[in-house]
Amino acid sequence: MPLLQGHNAPGPNFVLVDLRRNDSRGKGSPTVSRRRGADVDQGGTIRTSLNLPAQSLYPSIPTLYDVFRAAQVKTVIWYCGSSRGRGSRAAGWLGDQIAEKGDTQMRSVILGGGIKGWVAGGESFTAYMSGYEADKWVNAAE
């Protein structure tokens, strides 16, 4: 949260990457929403996040590293529902690429607790979300 407040702005300071594709989409829900992308079916996403579904991420890691490096991104923050699976794997994949390149300026980290932890943080956190729908999160802690 401190990264989103004050003078830190996405870009050179950090990039948020939402690895979810459509985790919370119910049976019979449309695959494509008419409103702002995948975040609607998932109850929202943290503002400024890139949506890069984990299912197709691994082959793109070298290219993502090059893009983030060219943009002088210092910290890449990965998250999924809980950041215990996809978030950790993605952070590790980019972390390996960073180490392989000998880069000491960039970090690859997870958002502890993932988007569920973010939402559980309350209104001060959900205020920083796009497409936030409280009813989608009622059973999220389960």
From TrEMBL:
Residues 21-45 are annotated as: Disordered. It comes from the Eukaryota. Residues 42-127 form the Rhodanese domain. InterPro entries: Rhodanese-like_dom, Rhodanese-like_dom_sf. SUPFAM superfamilies: Rhodanese/Cell cycle control phosphatase (SSF52821). This is Rhodanese domain-containing protein. It comes from Verticillium dahliae (strain VdLs.17 / ATCC MYA-4575 / FGSC 10137) (Verticillium wilt).
